[in-house]
Amino acid sequence: MAGERWAPRESWRVRLGSGLRAYGLIVAMWVRSTMAYRASFAMTTIGTFTACALDFVAILLMFSHVDSLGGYALPEVAFLYGTSSTAFGLADLLIGSMDRLGRRVRDGTLDSLLVRPVPILAQVAADRFAPRRLGRILQGALVLGFALVALDIDWTLVRVLMVPVMIVSGTAIFAAVFVAGAAFQFWAQDAAEVQNAFTYGGTTLLQYPPSLFAKDLVRGVTFVVPLAFVNWFPALYVLGREVPLGLPEVVVFLPPVVAGVCCAAAGAAWRVGLRSYRSTGS
Amino acid sequence: MRLYAVVAAGGFRRYATYRVATFAGIFANTVFGFILAYTYIALWDERPGLGGYDQAQALTYVWLGQALLMTCAMLGGSFQDELIERIRTGDIAVDLYRPADLQLWWLAGDLGRAAFHLLGRGIVPMVLGALAFDLALPSNPLVWSAFLLSVLLAVVVSFAIRYLVALSAFWLMDGAGVGQMAMLTGMFFSGQLLPLTLFPGALGTVAQALPWSSMLQIPVDVLLGKHTGWGLVQAYGFQAGWAVALLALGRALQGVATRRVVVQGG
After folding, report:
1. Lower Cβ count inside 10 Å, N or C end of chain A?
2. Which residues of B touch A43 (CB under 8 A)?
């Protein structure tokens, strides 16, 4: 990283602090620029909200024909939907612009970020920060709210705590996928859709019960890309259902650990990717 | 005519250049195909024969949806963004000087793009879907040709809608809002989220009468052999009717727009 060359003895604490500060400044800049056109902001936020809401309308239409999907009733599917959608929406708001990295590598505009004395990851993550993405979070939160009201659950303290914990760790896991996907773009510049398959595809997958999917697919999102920890495992605990694949009960409490490991791995992938970057020369 | 053939070939070649993007797109379409296929299996396990489809037909619907997603540009984009940009910057004035019809020029390019996306991003996910699931694919080549004609009409309807969206930039200067609305209606009313035959009551009737049903619901039903004989002619008539009406509307709107065009900074 360019910053390392200038100040190799900076501790990770200082770098994290300066990264977060830079991120905050760039985000504030984009928020100000968005708010210059308030009507446009309102319309695009409502648009994002509606786009996401239509996904749930499709699920409602399904449930107008059936009482359960894969053995799960509507409030249970809504719970999975709400948790997955909210976590993904938060990650998308915070660093959803990472998928533009491929384009920056391709057209050489990444160079302009490299010459600034600010961590590249913070710059790329905050680039084109889009407050309209609040629409997705709002929609996810509303569905989650509906689920929490409609579910018939024996709420214990652990179950109650599980909901915010899974939202926060889920956000971190999705964020790690965004960063790892962006790291991949350093090599395959044109492959933003691969990243979409894991992010948008991932959240779509998690909106449905694991009982719908083939065992190998569930294994894949448990052991390879651990999306199952975003909501499936902790949600199954809240809903009082059995953990799939015969895994031990303890996996339901692992989301924060998995989130930490994912973020560390994504950070390492990012550093390797950035080091391999060669400018276009144009 | 030769000119438009060249433009169409250019549209094809242009998208064929992005090989990595095509592979990445195939991957994404396949992943979504798998997710949707499993949800449809759960749905049709509960209610066999739902919406007039058996499970194999429902799964065929899923994979055709993925194959036609880019072909019919159901998320909008492609030439639409480019045309909006040209209107916004005033480059459109140059296009109007060209000895070619503006609408036909963009249509030709879009047909080339659609042909590439059908081959590049349609066939592989379809084959992978057929390997992994039991699909109801016809063996009669005539049904396949009937399907391809329906897809052609679908692309023209899709183009006509996106052309109208792009022209709105003459008045709004920024087509993003209209584009987003068009994407929403396109996703929902083409049947991409759920077959239109599953929409209840009046919503279902309206959805099937709107132009977007030409973009997925009708081509799928043609391939599944739901429209034969006179019914097939009617299905084509529906698609062609919307295509002609929307293209005519686009032409009229273009006439009004070019009379009042003010070139930025010109």
Report:
1. C
2. 177
Would you state the pLDDT for residue B259?
A: 79
In this structure, the dihedral spanned by the alpha carbons of residues A233, A238, B42 and A64, taken in order and rounded to 10 degrees, is -150
Q: Which of A60, A193, A198, A213 is the best residue to mutate to test the B interface, defined by the most B CB atoms within 10 Å of its own CB?
A: A193
**A69: which strand partners?**
A72
| Cβ partners under 8 Å of residue B88, min gap 6 | B169, B173, B174, B264
Note the pLDDT tens digit of each residue in A226-244: 999 999 999 999 999 988 8
Residue recorded with tokens 């719908």:
A212
Task: List pLDDT tens digits, range A119-138.
Answer: 888 888 888 888 889 999 99
How far apart, in whole angstroms, are the C-alpha atoms of residue A55 and residue A137? 14
Cβ–Cβ contacts within 10 Å for residue A245, how many? Answer: 12
- Under an 8 A CB cutoff, do B38 and A214 touch? yes
Cβ contact, residue pair A188, B27, below 8 Å: no
- Minimal Cα–Cα distance from A59 to chain B, Å? 9
Buried b (16+ CB within 10 A) or exposed e, A34-44: beeeeeebebb
Using alpha carbons only, what angle is made at residue B35 by residues B143 and A206, rounded to the nearest 5 degrees?
160
CB contact under 8 A, B180 and A191: no
